[in-house]
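User: Design a sequence. Structure:
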């Protein structure tokens, strides 16, 4: 152990030795350790630089070299005179001894930016692997460097990849090398540098000024608000330290505590918070009503409002949740529209296998001017086909694009035209119409080109309503009982849905479901504004939007 520690010191000093020192080594044959000792005795710090190595030895401090700081817990490593830069270190016991410590974690406040370096999770430890880094709540590792903290000029550069790196900005620099081993152990060699005119007072309560004379930032019985680590960070640090100590044959080490903040007190109930702050509990419930099905989000919303009686706080959470997990909503003027009943009661046709593809006589097949999806479903014991025909002329940009796309049906329409498509449900053997008590037709991927080119509209006058999502991008209208949905946002091929049964929030925002009752046929008119070539209209006989994203 002693040889390991002194070697670390010697190498550290050799890295900063002058050419004269190195020449003396060569000429006199003295050891690196003697050079280190010589510099310990002759230097009084390099004006703004402080370094700690190994378990834990002072390589250099701001005002002469102080004794080695072997105490354990949370300490200020160094803080600049102007307060812009602050570095804290957390030490645990080393080499299974209660009197030896090494640095296991570091945290920095760099011009208001919080940067945290944490030890590995014990079960995931490797030999000098990448190091966990978090800057302003953005998590990364030293394997992803170089990196500039967003919105700042703070650079984190690789130094000895993957376990070593440098944090640098004007007036501040920190060097971190986290050595890890599967034996297992973890310790940090580190150094910080301030401008010479920004050094702290010589008697400041910091490891880099008074060494082992420094007192902890906090301990078990103190206020931990000055810690640059979060409570969760302290839990991770102590999980590592306790796991390391538990392997010791020394009972004193195994029983050694790990100072950390006490658990956070439970959050008071939202209603109590409202009463304490003079906020309206009734108004809070009204604002958060749409989240009531999710206990956690509902209570978060109530609490956010009750803290400051601020409508915007609650509305922001509601809007964010609706965007991520949108709910189905019936369009204005829908006469018979209950999303839950539509979702559970509508007939579904899960297999759209094309047996004839000649919609409107445009090909690519010859024969009947239809698209026929054979054996699309079994209704009351009889197998049915779904047949698409057109009412009037049909102009397509690409006949071969009609038919299906995976589980979707597909109709390709030329920009600047429209076509009315009739959907008929017929007995597969006899061709007789089959009446469905409840069926729903959903149109997907309703977007458009840039500047509104190829804007898409789907309309129907035979549906009992229209169901969209709370985050919909579509413009819905009701004109004399005819419902329509029109695109409003440009899309790309990257956001196209792959399945009607697995939509993300964006894809469901671009879909609309039309429900029908007691029908054997129903229609939709597909319209495209002027644009380039044509666009595909994707559909499925599924109540997708009425079911919401959790079941889509």
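Assistant: Done.
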């Amino acid at each position: 152990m002693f040889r390991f520690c002194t070697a670390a010191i010697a190498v550290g000093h050799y890295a900063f030795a002058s050419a004269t020192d190195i020449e003396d080594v060569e000429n006199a044959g003295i050891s690196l350790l003697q050079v280190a000792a010589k510099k310990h005795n002759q230097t009084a710090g390099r004006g703004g630089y402080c370094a700690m190595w190994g378990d834990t030895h002072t390589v250099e401090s701001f005002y002469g070299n102080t004794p080695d700081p072997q105490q354990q817990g949370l300490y200020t490593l160094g803080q600049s005179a102007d307060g812009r830069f602050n570095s804290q270190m957390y030490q645990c016991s080393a080499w299974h001894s209660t009197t030896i410590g090494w640095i296991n974690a570091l945290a920095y406040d760099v011009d208001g930016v919080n940067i945290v370096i944490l030890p590995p999770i014990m079960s995931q430890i490797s030999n000098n692997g990448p190091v966990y880094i978090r800057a302003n709540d953005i998590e990364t590792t030293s394997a992803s460097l170089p990196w500039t903290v967003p919105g700042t000029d703070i650079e984190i550069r690789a130094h000895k990849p993957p376990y070593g790196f440098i944090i640098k900005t004007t007036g501040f620099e920190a060097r971190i090398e986290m050595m890890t081993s599967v034996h297992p152990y973890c310790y940090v060699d580190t150094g910080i540098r301030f401008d010479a005119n920004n050094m702290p007072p010589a008697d400041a309560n910091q490891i880099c000024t008074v060494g082992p004379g420094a007192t902890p930032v906090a301990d078990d019985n103190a206020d931990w608000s000055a810690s640059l680590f979060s409570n969760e960070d302290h839990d991770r640090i102590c999980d590592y330290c306790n796991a390391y100590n538990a392997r010791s044959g020394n009972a004193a080490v195994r029983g050694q505590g790990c100072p950390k903040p006490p658990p956070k007190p439970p959050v008071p109930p939202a209603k109590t918070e409202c009463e304490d702050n003079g906020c309206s509990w009734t108004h809070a419930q009204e604002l958060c009503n749409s989240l009531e099905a999710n206990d956690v989000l509902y209570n978060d919303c109530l609490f956010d409002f009750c803290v400051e009686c601020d409508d915007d706080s609650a509305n922001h959470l509601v809007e964010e949740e609706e965007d991520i997990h949108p709910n189905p909503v019936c369009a204005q003027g829908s006469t018979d529209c209950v999303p839950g009943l539509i979702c559970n009661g509508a007939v579904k046709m899960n297999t759209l296998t094309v047996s004839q593809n000649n919609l409107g006589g445009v090909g690519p097949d010859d024969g009947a001017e239809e698209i026929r999806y054979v054996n699309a479903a079994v209704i009351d014991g009889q197998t049915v086909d779904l047949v698409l025909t057109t009412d009037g002329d049909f102009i397509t940009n690409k006949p071969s694009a009609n038919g299906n796309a995976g589980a979707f049906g597909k109709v390709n329409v030329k920009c600047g035209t429209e076509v009315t498509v009739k959907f008929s449900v017929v007995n597969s053997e006899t061709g007789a119409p089959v009446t469905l008590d409840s069926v729903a037709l959903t149109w997907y991927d309703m977007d458009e080109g840039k500047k509104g080119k190829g804007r898409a509209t789907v309309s129907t006058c035979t549906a009992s309503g229209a169901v969209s999502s709370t985050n919909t991008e579509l413009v819905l209208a009701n004109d004399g009982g005819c419902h329509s949905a029109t695109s409003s946002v440009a899309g790309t091929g990257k956001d196209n849905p792959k399945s009607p049964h697995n939509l993300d929030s964006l894809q469901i925002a671009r879909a609309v479901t039309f429900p029908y009752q007691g029908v054997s046929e129903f229609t939709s008119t597909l319209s495209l504004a002027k644009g380039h070539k044509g666009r595909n209209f994707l559909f499925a006989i599924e109540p997708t939007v009425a079911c919401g994203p959790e079941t889509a």
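DSSP finds 13 helices and 28 strands in the chain. The domain at 48-254 is CATH 3.40.1000.10 (Protein Transport Mog1p; Chain A).
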